[in-house]
Design brief:
The protein folds into two domains: 76 residues, Urease metallochaperone UreE, N-terminal domain (HSP40/DNAj peptide-binding domain, Sandwich); 61 residues, Alpha-Beta Plaits, CATH 3.30.70. By secondary structure, the chain is mainly β. 15% of the residues are buried. The chain is built from two helices and ten strands. The protein starts with 10 loop residues before the first strand and ends in a 27-residue tail after the last strand. The longest helix is centred in the middle third of the chain and has 13 residues.
Length: 173
């Protein structure tokens, strides 16, 4: 019998735990699952751990996965920690805050996912957007790192979560 990790049946992950570890898992029962920002939005399907172990996600639809989320199998005998995989990105910088805000506005009009920081924007590498940003006089440089985009007005990540309940009517008089 082979010891190759790819020969094992996939671990079926059905539960999601946010925050601290939920059990005392031995090292051979703890795995890491590197996912891109886009992959973290897909809660079903085959994946592969960082060590090559086959995984099958069958998670409830509770919003995108976040780095640090812990995924568990039905018997809670495996713990798989989601990590943000490095991705090819563009770093956008400007000489003024206004220029950076204008860049964010134009990218937002195109529904581009953005990671926001003091003094810079990060977005997935795209040659058309890179040319547009450079034509506006912005400094654009490639980088590779985990991408943690803003969740948007109604779908924020847990680190940005707050209530958006409304008590007013949207009907016109």
């Amino acid at each position: 019998m082979s010891d190759n990790v790819s020969d094992h049946k996939p671990i079926v992950l059905e539960h999601r735990q946010v925050g601290e570890a939920v059990g005392d898992f031995p090292p051979d029962r703890r795995l890491q699952l590197p996912l891109t920002a886009e992959e973290r939005t897909v809660l079903r399907g085959r994946r592969c751990s960082d060590c090559g172990r086959s995984l099958l996600l069958q998670l409830p639809r509770e919003g995108p996965l976040q780095p640090g989320d812990r995924l568990l199998d039905r018997s809670r005998s495996w713990e798989v920690v989601v990590i943000a995989a490095p991705e090819p990105l563009l770093r956008v910088q400007a000489d003024s805050v206004l220029e950076l805000l204008q860049a964010a506005y134009h990218l937002g009009n195109r529904h581009v996912a953005l990671e926001l920081h003091d003094g810079e924007l990060l977005l997935l590498k795209d040659s058309v957007l890179e040319a547009m940003l450079r034509s506006r006089g912005l400094r654009v440089s490639p980088c590779e790192r985990p991408f943690l985009p803003e969740g948007g007005a109604y779908g924020g990540s847990p680190s940005h979560a707050h209530s958006h309940s409304h008590s007013h009517s949207h009907e016109t008089p």
